[in-house]
Amino acid sequence: MARGSLILIVLLLSFFIVPADIVAQCSICTKTAQQLGERPAKALNMGIIYLGLTPFLIIGFIGYRWWKNNR
């Protein structure tokens, strides 16, 4: 149980350590964002990261619950 808690803590901390300036835009989105300005470009980038991360979090949660129930 302590090992699982340690892994969970490390994963949560890694989310906070990752730099916030991750570029998640394709070339077309980058050109569109450059035309919009800096603030809308950052919002577009965060929206892309949010939409990309959500399925991984859902699948990870389901996998964790499945693993926990089958132990």
TrEMBL record:
The chain crosses the membrane at residues 48-67. Keywords: Membrane, Transmembrane, Transmembrane helix. This is Uncharacterized protein. It comes from Niastella caeni. The lineage of its organism: Bacteria, Pseudomonadati, Bacteroidota, Chitinophagia, Chitinophagales.
